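Much of our argument rests on the idea that a fold can be written as discrete symbols. Part of our work consisted of pairing the sequence of a single chain with a tokenised description of its backbone. The amino acid sequence and the backbone structure tokens for this protein are reproduced below.
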Amino acid sequence: MKMIRLTPLVLVLAALLSYAQQAAAQIEIGVKVSPSVNFSRTFAKDQYNFKSEGAGAGIGIGIIGDYFFGANYAFSSGLIYNSKGGKISYDYNPYVAADPNDPAIPAPIKGKDDINLQYLEIPLTLKLFTNELSAGTRLYFQGGLSLNTLLASKVNDKKIDNNTGDRYNKRFNTFEIGAILSAGIEWPLGQSTKFMGGLTYHRGLTDVDNGHYSGILGDKKIEFKNNTIALDFGLKF
């Protein structure tokens, strides 16, 4: 009688154990480091003479997770610290005079900024894997969006605007949405450990300027967006 009563409990425990093992097999957790090159895209009228003054170096580091819903398909997300930005200049002279030395004519509006923005990112992407090229080695292709929250910012290597006394965070929007395109390779290092390496392009889709350049130049249509190209190195468990 006791054996009969225990049988359903044993079956339930066995089913739960089997489900837990399957779930563990479907989820792969890892860490990655991504040195990057950052540059900006500025959208403005030609008269403002916005120019890129070169790229900046950045770094991304965080936790990633792949949830497999098929042998070669996974939903990939994570929590990643990433730095972005760029170097830009502008030079706008709206005044025309017969004598350029006329003291009544205001000086041109110009400036040069080295912008560093630090974000906490949540990628929401689909990752597609090829069949094995050799034992455990596969290529992957990844695409999707990232939801990014601004943590800190620097302009010309300073956190505080000397003109206003405010932190530079006020100059930039708190939230950013970006697109992610990536390709890479995974190969096994052991029974349950994999090394991954790849190349990722992050393209900002939303304006990160919170009206700063629009206010200086008097044009609400000016936009500043992030671009990043990163090398990805990581371990998955």
In short: Residues 1-6, 8-24 have pLDDT under 50 and may be disordered. The helical segments are 2-26, 212-217. The domain at 26-236 is CATH 2.40.160.20 (Porin). The two ends are 45 Å apart (CA to CA).
